[in-house]
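[Discussion] Sanity-checking designs against the backbone

I'm trying to build intuition for which residues belong where. Below is a structure token string of 364 positions. I'd appreciate it if someone posts a full sequence so I can compare it with mine line by line.
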């Protein structure tokens, strides 16, 4: 029992005790004259596009009004772009918000959600909040999903399986061939959530066509966000493409008016400006290749990354490496005992990180 400030007994749900805390990427601590860089949250390092900022300024003049709860214009726009019916789209406050809507729509206490581990740290949080259980399936030696093992982990109480591709925080994605084989074997009543937060950065052969899998299998949900490639992390907007029945359930479990007018209009303006954003995405992908090559040259066993970050499988040295980066004015995201995720950021930040990695590899 917990007592509140007045000494009154407050009954919180038991499930809350099992909810892990989200450790957000920290802003960098200033170090003398060094420009500090944030490489800890997989954000887009580019500032907002002027055309998007203009729309945001204009939308802000309406902030005394509630937004369009149905997110109509953006939904129509996305439906056209993705060649799906508008009824198949559900939006939310970031794709983490949409994932919460998915779990709220599917899981009762004691139900199970299968996902890889290590993977996105929000998964066990949203699952535990619903009183459901995460069934975590370890990655393989290349830090990739083991889809066969994930299939084997599906049981009577499984409601959802999440495939994070590319996988945050390790970087590799699954192939279309293996994902298709997986989806074909998952029972029809289990939702397969394909989390494609980094899809715009994927350049491999045989990359997943998650939308095609959604069209062929009503239990497939594709999760996307405007936070990463589109650079709108601070506005909180993401969406799911799902069967109309599932999408309707996601609209029911959404926070009413959760997606602001500013976010809705900025998302549309970003779709309008995709050609400009694409140039930035290509530059980040080129930076990723340059960083990966430099680190491998130093001897680091960095897994292939299809996203906007790289993974250092440092084990017990994760915190020490993060501290070395911090000394150099770089905030990165350590996972104690496991590894460190570093976002591809400004060129100067990447260069400095490569230099820190070289020193750390030599001197420990
Ligand atoms: C960043 C990220 C998201 C998106 O988060 P938003 O809530 O849309 O900002 C979703 N999934 C993964 C795996 C991510 O890394």
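Best answer:
Here's mine. Compare freely.
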């Amino acid at each position: 029992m917990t007592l509140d400030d007045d000494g009154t007994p407050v009954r919180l749900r038991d499930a809350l005790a099992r909810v892990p805390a989200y450790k957000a990427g920290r802003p960098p601590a200033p170090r003398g004259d060094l420009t500090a860089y944030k490489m800890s949250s997989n954000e887009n390092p580019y500032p907002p596009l002027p055309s998007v900022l203009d729309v945001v300024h204009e939308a802000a003049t309406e902030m005394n009004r509630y937004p369009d709860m149905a997110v109509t214009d953006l939904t129509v726009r996305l439906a056209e772009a993705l060649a799906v019916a508008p009824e198949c789209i559900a939006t939310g406050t970031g794709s983490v918000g949409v994932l919460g809507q998915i779990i709220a729509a599917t899981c009762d206490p004691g139900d199970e959600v299968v996902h890889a581990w290590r993977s996105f740290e929000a998964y066990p949080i949203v699952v535990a909040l619903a009183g459901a259980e995460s069934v975590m399936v370890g990655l393989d030696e290349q830090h990739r999903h083991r889809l066969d093992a994930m299939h084997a982990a599906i049981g009577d109480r499984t409601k959802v399986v999440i495939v994070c591709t590319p996988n945050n925080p390790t970087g590799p994605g699954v192939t279309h061939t293996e994902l298709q084989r997986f989806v074909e074997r998952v029972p029809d009543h289990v939702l397969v959530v394909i989390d494609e937060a980094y899809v715009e950065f994927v350049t491999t052969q045989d990359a997943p066509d998650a939308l095609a899998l959604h069209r062929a299998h009503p239990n497939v949900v594709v999760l996307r966000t405007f936070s990463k490639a589109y650079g709108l992390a601070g506005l909180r907007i993401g969406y799911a493409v799902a069967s109309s029945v599932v999408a309707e359930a996601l609209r029911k479990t959404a926070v009413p008016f959760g997606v602001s007018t500013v976010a809705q209009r900025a998302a549309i303006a970003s779709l309008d400006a995709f050609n400009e954003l694409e140039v930035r995405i290509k530059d980040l992908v080129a930076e990723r290749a340059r960083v990966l090559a430099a680190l491998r040259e130093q001897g680091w066993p960095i897994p292939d990354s299809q996203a906007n970050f790289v993974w250092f499988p440092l084990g017990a040295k994760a915190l020490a490496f993060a501290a070395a980066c911090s000394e150099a004015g770089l905030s990165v995201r350590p996972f104690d005992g496991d590894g460190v995720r570093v976002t591809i950021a400004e060129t100067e930040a990447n260069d400095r990180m490569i230099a820190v990695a070289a020193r750390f590899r030599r001197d420990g």
